[in-house]
Design a protein that fits this description.
Elements (H helix, E strand, L loop, with lengths): L1 E5 L3 H14 L11 H7 L11 E10 L2 E11 H6 L4 E9 L3 H17 L4 E4 L11 E4 L16 H7 L3 E12 L9 H11 L2 E3 L4 H19 L10 H11 L8 E5 L5 E9 L2 H7 L7 H11 L2 E9 L8 H16 L3 E4 L2 E2 L3 H7 L5 E12 L1
Parallel strand pairs: 4-5, 11-12
Antiparallel strand pairs: 1-2, 2-3, 3-4, 5-14, 6-14, 7-12, 7-13, 7-14, 8-9, 9-10, 10-11
């Protein structure tokens, strides 16, 4: 018999966060989150997303043991301002038992119907800066800190319970040696002269911060046309600055400004922390923090986390300026492999940006939906 219990106490939420550590204890490719950070994500007092969203967390029990979890999420900005009557769900993990996954999904679907929402979609997070998608290919590759990893049986559970594919994402990688500067070196000089642009080379986190708010504003502008987009609010900007900027080497954040110092392009690259997080095993202390700091300084692999161009400058080659800056930085750092976060497979514009680097798709993932 499957019992569903809502996780409301600190003890329950810790159990919610820790469940995947048991589920994936024998997986060499699952990357554990930092437990403290996960708990803060779900803390209504610390995460400002809860000013515009709500979430409920459920655990599935069988014979007294936890066998699954799911987060039921409503982003009211999406529902009320955009008119998208979506019931979100994420952090969905379960043993290979169809009754377990069915009971967890029912908990989400019941809330959606109570709130008169049209459909459920997942796995997704609260916003576009959260993790997205169930893996359907690429299980033999090490995960990242900014994606979910899952067992191959997951997708069968979705389809068995009446869910169909809503969006398709792919993750790409390419060796740094694929980057040929002749594709952007001359072009970026012409573009800078034509549009009176300049790239900023920042080496300290405190130098980055004055541009961070403008970066999130530009993120909102440049991604607003995507079907899955929900804007980042002012209060969320402060939260994401504290959560992410400290993890990023300042020289891995690139800004392009015009003659009036207006931000027209940006990119954020992160060291690949996967191996360090495996060693940390969810804990920053006593040794986890040192593993992460070492990776931040020495990792030869990087992840392109975000890239955004102002709508007025899209299709004008501004990305060539950004790539030129990264080429010089990565050459000095001895970077070997470049990875990209999940990108919508129907995003033709982003594919055009990367085509000269001969990227390889190594992971595919999907979100799935069910009408309510």
């Amino acid at each position: 018999m499957i019992t569903i219990k809502e996780a409301t106490s600190k003890k329950d939420l810790k159990a919610f966060v820790r469940f995947p550590f048991k589920l994936y204890q024998d997986s060499k490719n699952w990357v554990p989150p930092i437990i403290k950070q996960e708990l803060e994500t779900f803390n209504k007092e610390k995460n400002p997303i809860f000013k515009d969203a709500e979430a409920r967390f459920f655990l599935a029990y069988k014979a007294g043991e936890i066998v699954g979890r799911i987060a039921a999420i409503i982003n009211w900005l999406e529902v009320d301002k955009q008119g998208i009557k979506k019931m979100r769900f994420g952090w969905f993990d379960f043993i290979d038992d169809l009754e377990v996954s069915k009971a967890l999904l029912k908990s989400v679907e019941d809330i959606g119907r109570e709130q008169q929402l049209s459909y459920a979609e997942g796995p997704v997070g609260f916003s576009n800066l959260d993790k997205v998608g169930v893996m359907t290919e690429g299980f033999d590759h090490l995960g990242t800190m900014i994606t979910w990893y899952n067992h191959p049986y997951y997708i069968n559970h979705y389809t068995t319970h009446g869910y169909s594919i809503e969006k398709a994402y792919s993750e790409n990688k390419f060796p740094f040696e694929n980057v040929k500067p002749e594709f952007f070196k001359k072009a970026q000089e012409l573009i800078k002269r034509r549009y009176k642009l300049r790239a900023l080379n920042l080496t300290k986190t405190e130098e980055v911060m004055p541009y961070a708010d403008r970066m999130f504003d530009l993120f909102n502008e440049s991604y607003s046309s995507l079907s899955s987009f929900v804007e980042i609010t002012d209060i969320q900007k402060e939260y994401f600055k504290k959560k992410f900027i400290s993890f990023v080497n300042p020289e891995y954040i690139k800004f392009v400004v015009d003659e009036h110092d207006k931000l027209v392009g940006f990119a954020v690259v992160m060291p690949r922390f996967a191996s360090a997080l495996k060693k940390a095993n969810g804990k920053l202390f006593p040794f986890g923090f040192s593993h992460i700091l070492k990776a931040k300084k020495n990792s030869k692999d990087v992840i392109f986390y975000l890239i955004g161009i102002h709508p007025e400058y899209q299709n004008k080659g501004v990305h060539a300026v950004i790539f030129n800056e990264y080429y010089e930085t990565f050459k000095q750092k001895g970077i070997e492999t470049c990875y990209r976060t999940p990108e919508l497979e129907d995003n033709v514009a982003i594919k055009q940006i990367w085509k000269h680097f001969d990227p390889e798709i190594y992971v595919r993932r999907k979100t799935l939906r069910k009408d309510l």
